[in-house]
Amino acid sequence: MYARILGTLTLTDGLRTVTPRAPKQRQLLSLLLLHAGQVVTVDECVDELWADSPPLSAHSTLQTYVMQIRKTLRSAAADTGAPAEMYLETRDRGYLLAVGPGQLDLHQFEKLVEQASLARIVGDHTRESELLHRALGLWSGRALADVTCGPLLRTRLSGLRETWLGALEQRIDADLRIGRHHRLIGELRVLTRQYPTYENLHAQLMIALSRSGRTADALEVFARLRRTFSTELGLEPSARMRDLHADLLNSVPVTESVYLPGPDSTPVPLRPAG
User: Fold this and answer.
1) How confident is the model over 171-190, as a mean pLDDT?
2) How much is the pLDDT for 245?
3) What b/e string do you get for 81-104 counting C-beta neighbours within 10 Å, with b at 16 or more?
4) Quick one: DSSP state of residue 6?
C-alpha cells in the first residue's frame, strides 16, 4: 500500500488505485495520513469534518467513515496477498493510522530533507543538492489539492507549505555552492515575484546574477526589494541585504556563507504575493 498527499490524494495497492471517492472520507483519510502514527481524537475528526456545525449524528457518521476506510485498507491488502502494513486502529478517544516504512510520500520527503541537512552540516553540498532534488521531486503540486479541507487540515497544510519552501530555499543554496548559478536565475526570478518580501530568495538571485557577470541586474533586484519593503511594510531591507548591495556596488566578491543563513538558521516566515 502506498499513499500520496504531496499533490492529489492517492491511495494505491500497487495494482490499482483505491482512493475513496466520497468527499468526507477523503477528508478524514487525509487528516489521518497527515498525522500518521499519531492518535487523532474523535473531537479533532469532528472539528475537521464539520467545523462549528456538527450534526447530531456526527459521532456515528464518523464511525461509519472509519469503518469504510478500514475496509478499503483491508481489502487492498487481501487483494495483494501482502501483510497489511497500513491499517487503522481505534485508540482511546481517537484513531491512529499505522503506516509502514516507505508507504507515505510525506515521510519519504521528510527523511530526504533530514539527510540533506546532515550533508549540509558536513559540507557535502553536492549530496545535499541531490537529496533535496529527490525530496522536492515527490511533490506534484499543492498538497491535497483535490481534497476539501477543514480547519485542522488548513493549519497543517500551511505548515507543510512552509516546509516545502524551506527545502526549496536550501536546495537553491546548495546549487549555488556547487556553481549552478546560471541555471538558477530563471527559477529565482519567478520565486522572487511570488514572494516579493522574502529576503533570502532575493539574496540568492542577487548572488546568482553577480556570479553570472550581471551585477547591474543584481542591483536592480535589490532596488525592487527596497521599493516593495517601503510600499508594503514601511521598512528598509535588513542590514544583511544592505551589506550585500554595498558589496556589489563596490565590486566585492560575494559568497553564500556571508549573506545566506547557515545550516542551523531558523527559516524566515514567507508571505506570498497577494
Assistant:
1) 96
2) 95
3) eeeeebbbeeeeebbbbebeeebb
4) S
Containing 59, the helix (H) or strand (E) segment is helix 58-80
pLDDT tens digit string along 52-105? 899 999 999 999 999 999 999 988 777 665 556 789 999 988 999 999 999 999
Note the pLDDT of residue 257.
65
Residue 202 is assigned to a structural domain of this protein: yes
- The CATH number given to whatever domain includes residue 264 is 1.25.40.10
Against a cut of 0.85, is the pTM above it?
yes
- Residue 169 maps to a domain: no
pLDDT at 268 over 90: no
Q: Are 9 and 147 in contact (CB under 8 A)?
A: yes
Domain of residue 22, residue span: 2-98
Buried b (16+ CB within 10 A) or exposed e, 244-258: bbebbeeeeebebee
* Grid coordinates belonging to 143: 498538497
Domain final residue pick, 40, 71, 98: 98
Question: How many domains is the chain partitioned into structurally?
Answer: 2
* Residue 7 scores a pLDDT above 80: yes
The CA–CA distances, whole Å, from 119 to 56, 172, 194, 213, 214 equal 53, 15, 29, 29, 30
CA distance 68 to 81: 20
CA distance 111 to 134: 11
Helix (H) and strand (E) counts in the chain: 11, 5
Q: How confident is the model at residue 1 (pLDDT cuts 50, 70, 90)?
A: confident
- Cβ partners under 8 Å of residue 35, min gap 6: 97, 156
